[in-house]
Predict the structure.
Amino acid sequence: FSLTTFSSQGKLPQIEFALRAVANGDTCLGIKARNGVVIATEKKLESTLVDETSIIKAAAISKHIGMSYSGIGADFRVLVAKARKHAIRYFSTYEEHVPVSQLCLELSNVVQELTKARGVR
């Protein structure tokens, strides 16, 4: 069995599972204005015992890039750490801020590698 193997119906079961998980996720919204950006997200606490302040759903990657998530918090923390490292590495090499498109490409490569790796999930 492989995560990238098609079923007899011609579908990728792992993709179907991921789409169902996204449909059950929290709402995240980004609004761009002339003088800035607003990132809003919904916090659904699974238990009354969870401290609301311990759940972080949005993070700053650099002075001009922010990130929010609708999914698994541990995955978000890993991606934020990798995004921050990439932004710092890019700035120290080129002395300018990393383009958002390049940062997205870098993070999508990380997610794709984890999707194809056995035993990660």
